[in-house]
Amino acid sequence: MSLNPFQLFNKWYVKELDTSTSSLPSACCISTIGLDGYPNARFVSLKEVRDETFIITGPLQSRKGLEIEKSSKIAITFWWETTQRQIRIQGNATKITDDEAATYFDLRTKDSKIISIISKQGDTTKNIDTLKQKFSEAESTYESKNILKPKNWGGYAIQPIRIEFMEFKKSRFHQRTLFQLSNKEWTTTILQP
């Protein structure tokens, strides 16, 4: 086994991308410490692994963004059905630069960009039809125009301190390997199933 958890992650991720029938193989569960002290989890799309960090994006004023602003401690969980593998990550999130966020925003579909400018993610609404009307109006406005990243849209780089890889086995002797960062070096521990 590789002593570098990022090499192992990439190896597993490429395998999942090559074999998965899922429409969203990059989906992962992000868990934060809620503003009320309770854990809070939701699924997002991993944008990439870069410079030994995991990159996610979204509205900075969403509940997720507000929770990360209050506490940078975050967990990421991947479950890959096709390869029967799970990866659990704990670490600290820091905001990516505005230029980096703009680059990720440019990669979004036009519909996703429009939703990002008309919706305040997680806020209440009295009538969804009002948002649909705003969407239609924005569609017309931006028919032949580029949509720029809103100021409240950004992303986070999650620097892990702990990564656990688990490969499920029919025998129930699941293979579990824990990488922990200590003094800027990764140590490896085998965990019981």
TrEMBL record:
Binding site for FMN: 42-47, 63-64, 86, 176
Entry's Gene Ontology BP terms: pyridoxine biosynthetic process
InterPro entries: Pyridox_Oxase (IPR000659), Pyridox_Oxase_N (IPR011576), Pyridoxamine_oxidase_dimer_C (IPR019576), Split_barrel_FMN-bd (IPR012349)
Cofactor binding annotation: Binds 1 FMN per subunit.
Residue ranges annotated for the Pyridoxine 5'-phosphate oxidase dimerisation C-terminal domain, each copy included: 153-193
Keywords (A to Z) from UniProt: Flavoprotein, FMN, Oxidoreductase
Ranges where the Pyridoxamine 5'-phosphate oxidase N-terminal domain occurs: 25-140
Coiled coil regions in record: none
A single GO molecular function term of this UniProt record: FMN binding
Cofactor(s) the record lists: FMN
Family: Belongs to the pyridoxamine 5'-phosphate oxidase family.
Protein name: Pyridoxamine 5'-phosphate oxidase
